[in-house]
Design goal:
The structure is a homodimer of 435-residue chains. Chain A has 16 helices and 16 strands. The interface between A and B is large, with 96 and 96 residues.
Chain lengths: 435, 435
């Protein structure tokens, strides 16, 4: 028989068990935090009708999508969890309570050019709160709280949630006579990547006067404490209505965040945050790890005016955010911020001699009955091979079970790290390893 | 703007949050049990190279598969978790410890004809133990133990794990002069669906003599306790080597199962279990719910001689089993064996009056700080609408927070089921709802 080389497609992440355990641990922490904050789970299909998924259409999305037909059906793999959420909310509207708080953790697909750290299949962990007709600003403040607790629980101490409000930028641009703010926003959003000079020249290309361009640069460089920045913005005395609305919103959101008791060190206002996506309309967030700025934003989102206008004429404003878990995991691993260790799911491995396998299983059952995490090696093999397995699986303790141990019910407990051995009774074993 | 009707493709399950919570609870119990028994997690891509996934090729699989191209790449969605496991094990062989015990819980895809209770996207929950070159029969006994604990934890009390060994059937058929046992096995496997008469006539079509057909029927109808059946099989004095090997194996497996302490009421030997798949070579399992025989097998699997012969020339024998969770969930729900209730993720909802929202959030934070599961309604709305939300989300207790409560720090706690109200202090709240 001819052998097919076993391999995955390029751009598809696949982990060894030890890394998978670490990945799952992170995914569990994220899920727990989402649930703790009252977000309900949904799990939409990976495949949707192309007509539904591409209702908005256009742009990069359509090029990257995995789209195919079977029979007469034109279908596509989801490329994010937001479009499926819009479809879900519109479809099941009458069965949901609003504000509808949902989370979804799942794989999404983008046929991007394969490159280091970019994946064609990756996990997104999304939360969104959707209002029916309206949704209070308190929700804009709750999302940083969820990020805060999630990243704390993931073990990060130094991270910053950067907050801005698009209306502030849009209103400021309008006060300079710039009406097409979307393109200007996109240029501004790139400043950390392309630098000030390039921002200026791209703005000029868009027809922004040099003086206005410089004012924009000065504006987005306003620094200081949250209160300082709010004060500076007030002091600008800009009379544009949208600007003032944005300023009022961010002031309220910061106020609510303080009510939530979020650590002042963990957030700031950053006026250059704009987010590339055009559907954000108010508050926007990005989150960076203070000591690893190169990783970029690890969690982003914002407020949008209308989630599902392609599927319903009901107006559904919302706030959402997304953690790109596969990418985050990859980057943390690459930067050695996290590292997986081979670790055993059990605390103790019973190694029975070949003629004591029955007794090994019985001991296993008795110990499991007591709630211990224990396993038994049941292959017929030389003792050396059995110990090699113990070594490889990184179990901490081992008992070798021979006729004598079976008779005496006393066991020689070997610490695999130190090599120390102590003789213990069944009860002492239980005592040592329970919990 | 024209509206696209929001809908999913036929054959794709999608649940409301309350059902999703129940589904996730079942999935968590399964995962916990798999991990408790020492199975390590893996998570292979949903998309694989067609060349790899279809290395075996042929049959129904190829017709049902979702296969498509992007650029030059011919790819397919996985139709089970076994072929990806084979590829994974062969690819990462040098980084794995054998016996390699892994679990995978994930969605698989089959473009079957859509029909009630059959899904085109569904969850499988698989465990397999893979040996390098050889694998002891103890593993065949461990799988029923995992099923046993999993189904107990899922809340089932009456279920039966049916065990058989294909070698017993194959050897018995050979003793009747039937060499092509595979087709006969497939016919026998259908007996519960098509009945004895049809089995007899299909066997005749295969060229089996009527007398042999009747002997087969008598054979697979042998009933009794596990020990009775083993005795009956011994008493047949069949001298066929394969038969005797099968009989020896099942005797050993039952012995090991007893060592594991599995409840005798929960398993039997059922000689008509053959499993349709041709790759099982020894022990086979099916599991049925005693009070719901119509649901059929809820968990099946068995022993195979060589997992990954298409990808490596190393011989990798294994034992595996699979729970088809989507189908199981659907059937349990349809039969009203399980039923989801709208239930709240929190124990208590704070409903602040419109002018006390800040104080509502502060109270929320203080209570969360104490570990309580609590939420706050933060939309500006009439009290009636706020209570409607409390009703819809099925939260058990509510506090309305007005100026007076903020000042006095005493709260009127309303039981939403009984309508009773009691006045409580902050500490009394904490006391009542902690844990």
């Amino acid at each position: 028989m001819s052998i097919v080389k076993p391999s995955t497609l390029p751009g598809f992440m696949e982990l060894l068990p030890k890394d998978q355990m670490l990945f799952n641990e992170m995914r569990d922490i994220i899920r727990e935090n989402f649930e703790k904050h009252g977000f309900l789970p949904i799990d939409t299909p990976v495949i949707e009708k192309s007509e539904v998924l591409l209702a908005k259409g256009g742009g990069e999305t359509e090029k990257q999508i995995y789209r195919f037909s079977k029979g007469d059906t034109d279908m596509s793999l989801r490329f994010d969890l937001t479009v499926p959420l819009a479809r879900y909310t519109a479809e099941h509207m009458n069965d949901l309570s609003f504000p509808f708080k949902r989370y979804q953790i799942g794989k999404v697909y983008r046929g991007e050019k394969a490159q280091k750290g970019r994946f064609r299949e990756f996990y997104q962990c999304d939360i969104d709160t959707i209002g029916m007709g309206e949704l209070s600003l308190v929700n804009d403040a709750e999302f940083p709280v969820v990020i805060y607790h999630t990243f704390k629980d993931l073990g990060f101490t130094d991270f910053t949630i950067h907050i801005n409000n698009r209306k502030i930028l849009k209103g400021f641009f309008a006060s300079l006579g710039i009406e097409d703010s979307m393109n200007v926003l996109r240029v501004v959003d790139k400043i950390d990547k392309i630098g000030e000079e390039n921002v200026l020249s791209e703005l000029t290309e868009l027809g922004v006067e040099k003086k206005s361009g410089e004012k924009i640069l000065d504006f987005i460089k306003i620094r200081g404490s949250v209160d300082d920045i709010i004060k500076s913005l007030e002091d600008l005395k800009i009379e544009n209505e949208i600007f003032l609305e944005g300023l009022d919103e961010i002031t309220q959101v910061i106020g609510y965040m303080r009510d939530f008791g979020i650590d002042e060190d963990c957030f700031d206002i950053d006026l250059k945050i704009a987010r590339g996506l055009d559907y954000y309309t108010g508050t926007v967030y990005e989150t960076t790890l203070d000591n690893y700025p190169n990783i970029g934003s690890v969690c982003s989102g914002g407020r949008y005016e209308d989630l599902a206008s392609y599927y319903t004429d009901k107006v559904l404003p919302g706030v959402g955010l997304s953690i790109g878990l596969s990418r985050l995991f990859y980057q943390l691993n690459e930067a050695k911020i996290i590292s997986s260790e081979e670790k055993s799911l059990v605390d103790l491995l019973i190694i029975p001699m070949d003629d004591c396998i029955h007794e090994g299983i019985k001991l296993l059952s008795e110990l499991r009955e007591k709630g211990l995490k224990v396993s038994v090696y049941t292959e017929f093999a030389k003792l050396k091979k059995k110990f090699k397995y113990a070594d490889q699986t990184k179990v901490d303790y081992v008992i070798v079970l021979g006729e004598e141990e079976v008779k005496s019910r006393r066991y020689s407990l070997k610490n695999m790290k130190s090599g120390d051995q102590v003789e213990v009774s069944f009860d002492e074993l239980v005592e040592k390893f329970k919990n």
